[in-house]
Amino acid sequence: MTRSAASTPPARPAGNLRAQLRRAERMRKLRAVALVAPLALFLVIVFVVPIGSMLWRSVDNSELASVMPQTAAALQQWDGTGLPDEAAMAAFAAELRDSRRGGGLGRIGRRLNYEDTGYRGLLMRTLRGLPAAGESIDDWTTALTEIDAAWGETATWLGIQRTAPPTTDRYMLASLDLERGADGEIQRVDAGDRLYQAVFQRTMVIAGGVTLICLALGFPLAYLLATLPAKTSNLLMILVLLPFWTSLLVRTAAWIILLQSNGLANQSLMALGLIESPLQLVFNRIGVFFAMVHILLPFMVLPLYSVMKGISPSYQRAAVSLGAHPFAAFWQVYVPQTVSGVAAGTILVFIMALGYYITPALVGGPADQMVSYYVAYYTNTTNNWGMAAALGSILLVVTLLLYLVYHRLVNRRQLIRR
């Protein structure tokens, strides 16, 4: 008894055991965070920061405030009637003279030109006509008006006042063919200046049309791949995936060659006697649909195939054995089980089609350009990052709304099944 009691190790206190368990749990969580941290950091750098920067640029209006802070502050306090006071005029002249350093003059000139195309030239003429830095001026209103009569007009200063606040809704409103009137109320732009609502509508129509065509072609193809023997199905799947191994630009250029007036498509139709003269199949909406469907069709087939592969053929055979017509058995038994694949394929293709740029730009005509074309135009040609960011932000919002609708429909269907 004494030997047995001596050989038994003393019991550890319950407090120490709890502390060790908490320490082990903490280490487990730290290891999990360490494993996820690189991916999270990558997502923040590659996705969150660029998207956040884009959203900010769509409302950023800091050009004047960063180059001419005193002028911006004075104009925000101005009531918009008559002309700004002498202090505002003096601050404007002094800061305009200093704006040549660091490229500030170019930034505010470009921003003011969005309000009226004559501002840049007005600033340059005024800068050349300003008195020397040490010269004393008692009446800056008269001095600026003598340099250019535009400084004696209230409208000139109102245009600059609109650029004084650090943020603006100008770009977002312009992206929807809206603007603020003289009374500050939101109104539609003139009929001749309306563009972007039609562009967004065109983008939706093209993306929707491409999605429907991909669904009509991809559903029977996925069904064929899911029901064929494995050897044949794998061979056909390679053909489906083959476009992924070719550059997007190469595929688009190939469609231009195939669909042009002397291309293979027109020559074949003429050789068969179906047409007498070449059809216009490229640089229009037809060419856009051909090229985009070819590129996006695999993104429809793959989700459908993954769902169809898991559907047992015994359900359909059981319905037929119970007296149902084969088509009725297919439509009422098989198709409902593919809804998740249809939903995933359509939302994937539609969202990808919304942002297409290269294919419509090369294969389409002027009336077939989508929102992404104008984003690239404002980014690369006019350097109007505000308009580019506003158009991109609206497209992002539309994409998120579509995803939310898809998510809600899928969740509702899962609840119904339960």
From TrEMBL:
Main location: membrane
Domain of life, per lineage: Bacteria
CDD domains from the UniProt entry: TM_PBP2
Cellular compartments per GO CC: plasma membrane
UniProt-listed Pfam families: BPD_transp_1
Keyword list, A-Z: Cell membrane, Membrane, Transmembrane, Transmembrane helix, Transport
Signal peptide start-end: none
Record-linked InterPro entries: MetI-like (IPR000515), MetI-like_sf (IPR035906)
Entries under Gene3D superfamilies matching the protein: MetI-like
Coiled-coil parts of chain: none
Localization of this protein: Cell membrane
Keyword flag DNA repair: no
Domain ABC transmembrane type-1 as annotated: residue spans: 200-406
Topology class, membrane: Multi-pass membrane protein
Protein's UniProt keywords contain Aminoacyl-tRNA synthetase: no
Transmembrane segments: 32-56, 204-226, 238-258, 286-307, 342-365, 385-406
GO biological process: transmembrane transport
Family: Belongs to the binding-protein-dependent transport system permease family. CysTW subfamily.
Protein's name according to its UniProt entry: Putative spermidine/putrescine transport system permease protein
Organism field: Halomonas campaniensis
